[in-house]
Amino acid sequence: MEPLEESVSRFMNWIEPLLDSRQYEVTAKSAEALLDPSGKARKLHEELRRSLPEDSSLEILRPFCEGWYLRHPTSLPIHLNPFYFFDLELSSGAALAARITSRALEFYRCIREGTLSRDEMRGNPQAMGQYSKIFGYTRLPGIGRDRTLAASDPNHIVIMRRGKIYSLKVLDEKGRMPRTKDLEVLFGNLWKKDEPLSFSPGVFTAADRPEWAAWREKLREHSGNRRNIDLVESALFVLVLEDSLEGETAICRNLIGGMPDNRWYDKSLQFIVYPEGAGGWNYEHSCRDGDVVRRFATFLEETSSEERAVENFPLLPELLEFVFTPEAEEKAREIRRNNARLRQKLGLEILSFSSFGSSVIKKARMSPDAFVQIVLLGVQQKLWGVLRSGLESVSLRHFQHGRTEGIRPLTMEGAACIRAYEEGLSKEALAPLLRRAGKAHRERIRLCQQGKGVEGPLGFLESFALFRGENPQEIPFFASPGWKSFGESWMSTSSTTNEGLRTAGYGPALPEGFGVRYMKNPEALELSITTFEGDVRAFESAFNQVGDAFLRALESSGEE
């Protein structure tokens, strides 16, 4: 952790374009109090700096790390669990489900045996610890805070089909597995059981976390329920065999928040497959980030080696039956209705901008990522008439325990560029301002990648205060208008490579805001957009308008 003075100084610089003069003055006074050598916050910071080298478990308290996710009480679907849509599509759902299962078991073996090649980013090795938390992990609901469960040597998966839950052993004592073609036959037969939707305890995993925690205990009072819930929670992963859906948008809506009767949102991985041969997955975020689970998409595209597969592997799916009281059934219907309203309220669109492919932006001598983020500032101005705080995720896996840092893309240079654009400056006059804003954005990314961000260290201190039994709101800085405005993610953004993926996405952080997952493909910019109360069509129009103006400005100037 760097000195508190440096984090606070950088914070005051970064929030300047967000606040009016009065708000800035109030925040500046609270920042001075935060640095007071005799103050509570300073003492907590010193305690944290002393404790951290000897107690690495405190790392989970950092923003965007495990403890940060586990304390969120909201329901997981749409709000917290992201989705990925595979680029791979096979001749049938049974074929894809079998391919996924075989490759997932091989991926799991590579992780267990340490043969998975180390990830690199621009030649820098990345920490691999998150891979051990992909399979056999489940988030367990709690009152006040959730926790995670790591299964010991799991050898089975869970299959869900129209609310029916099956446990299937897929690894024997010698680590051998079924053949892919045998799995395909089994999954095809399960799909043929065209039975009506069954009542499933999976619906409870779509409730707010404290509510699910209370009902989980009630359900587990029955010994059969307890055994079966344990089987689900200790499984390697969940495989969902879905009904037919047509169109990319419909599938994405189902991946991010499908019918909860046919889901178990607490599981680290839920693979979701459709009869026509398309599929993807929904994953629980607390112990793993997108760049880690995304690697499986490329692994999936390679055919299975079948090295450990054996003929006549006993494939004996066990139907798990649950007992529900009338009270539990009524509660499940209520949760189902609430989830249906949430899904209906969600706006989700997949947008493609052929004019802004990464090759075009690079030819104009600008970083495609910086270009997208500055265009999004212009979109904010057009939609809301004001610039607000957004979020861009940056990986910190080059650090031993690194997860992500949150970049706030609004810089003073970016604000100046948007003002100039709104004032109608010529493209020749706009170009240097745009390039200056791009340079400032890249510098902010560089600082965050070096561990010199703002949200990480200051949010860590806020979490540590809570961990030590303090109320952070009693520390003036954490109740200041600057800290509040800074942490609002009106546009929550991240980028994903297109290797093995058709698209990906997550829900918005604020009802009026947008979740924006983008792929910077050479020929087109692909955006997955979600919102509850925003206007996606207005977003699309504004992005086209601002992006076109900025691209023409860049092309008018040959300068770096």
What does this protein look like?
The model has no long low-confidence stretch (mean pLDDT 95). This protein has 19 helices and 20 strands. The two termini are 34 Å apart. The chain is globular. The chain has an 8-stranded mixed beta sheet, with helices on both faces. It has 2 domains: 79-345, Choline/Carnitine o-acyltransferase, domain 2 (Chloramphenicol Acetyltransferase), CATH 3.30.559.70; 348-452 and 485-555, Chloramphenicol acetyltransferase-like domain (Chloramphenicol Acetyltransferase). It has helices at residues 4-14, 21-34, 40-51, 66-70, 93-113, 180-192, 209-219, 223-233, 248-257, 290-293, 295-301, 326-345, 358-363, 368-384, 412-422, 427-449, 455-467, 481-486, 536-555; strands spanning 83-86, 120-121, 124-125, 137-140, 147-150, 156-161, 164-169, 177-178, 238-241, 269-273, 279-283, 309-310, 318-320, 347-353, 391-395, 404-407, 491-495, 501-505, 514-520, 525-531. It has 560 residues and is of the alpha/beta class.
In terms of per-residue confidence, which ranges show pLDDT below 50 for 5 or more consecutive residues? none
CATH homologous superfamily placement of the largest domain: Choline/Carnitine o-acyltransferase, domain 2
Q: Span between N and C termini?
A: 34 Å
CATH fold category name of the largest domain: Chloramphenicol Acetyltransferase
Q: What is the alpha-carbon Rg in Å?
A: 24 Å
Q: Helicity level, as a percent range? A: 40-55%
Structural class: alpha/beta
Percentage of β-strand residues: 15-25%
Q: What general form does the structure show?
A: globular
CATH architecture of the largest domain: 2-Layer Sandwich
Name the CATH class of the largest domain: Alpha Beta
Mean pLDDT: 95
